[in-house]
Amino acid sequence: MTDESGGNRNSYDKNHFPQQADVLNIVLDHITQGMVVVGPDYRTLAFNRHFEEMFQLPPGTVEVGADFRDILRTWAATTGQDQQMLDYAIYQLDEPATFEFEFPQLINGDPRWCLLTHNPLPGKGFVRTFTDITKRKALEASLMKLSREDPLTGLYNRRTILDLLEEEIQRGQRYKHPLSFLMMDIDHFKKINDQWGHPTGDEVLKSFAAQCRSVMRENDKMGRFGGEEFVMLLPETGKTDAVLVAERIRKITAEMAVKPKRSSTPIPVTVSIGATTAGEGDDVEYVIARADEAMYEAKDAGRNRVICH
């Protein structure tokens, strides 16, 4: 096909176009991921500017002809990787199949997450791309937190604490270690809500959670079971020590100072606690039922007390 001047519309002057190598360099530098091409002798054949920028390695580290293993050693030293991670990274260089691998790193002290995609070349060598997935990992962590935590108190939610209780029961029975369990219910909570409003009730729940955290050890776990009911797992804790913890919670709850907006005087808050220690062969349902029974016994006995079964 010709145009009006008689020229061929599909023809072009090669001199007016950049050489193929120049085109490839332009493409490489406009790819949003970092990219590096490594030959069969581990020598770096090509890389783009995003690869340099992503890892912020010292000047002169990444060059055509550089041994990629040396680049990895510098990367490990500057991004907080240990020797085990470095050894694994070097070992992966000879992987004959395509794979993806996510890893954390420190870039100028800033924690970042990276997705590595490894694609082997015919014969030997490989192409690797590196994608910054820090935002994605933060979103995943946020969603995981939402699925596991009670939004009001920041404690574990019911589903999560039940899973943790089952794990702790199994661990305690496997290693013959004691596990105690507290069921806690804030006394007259409906009356607090009715008299002072739900915002004040929410403050009571949050304050109670904060007070309980102050007495928890590193391995203890606490969750909001529903409404004004809370539970606490006490690994490596027998009945006597569990009662001591429960009494401490009871006392600091009675000392809480939650002031409604319509009053300058703190409202009284107390808690009834049922405590139990898991026995051989006990399951989740049995442990909860026994602690629940003890808690209601504390309620029936006048509230603001601890009963242990």
From TrEMBL:
Gene3D superfamilies: 3.30.70.270, PAS domain (3.30.450.20). It comes from the Bacteria. SMART domains: GGDEF (SM00267). GO terms for molecular function: diguanylate cyclase activity. Residues 177-309 form the GGDEF domain. It catalyses: 2 GTP = 3',3'-c-di-GMP + 2 diphosphate. Its EC number is 2.7.7.65. NCBIfam families: GGDEF. This is diguanylate cyclase. The lineage of its organism: Bacteria, Pseudomonadati, Pseudomonadota, Betaproteobacteria, Nitrosomonadales.
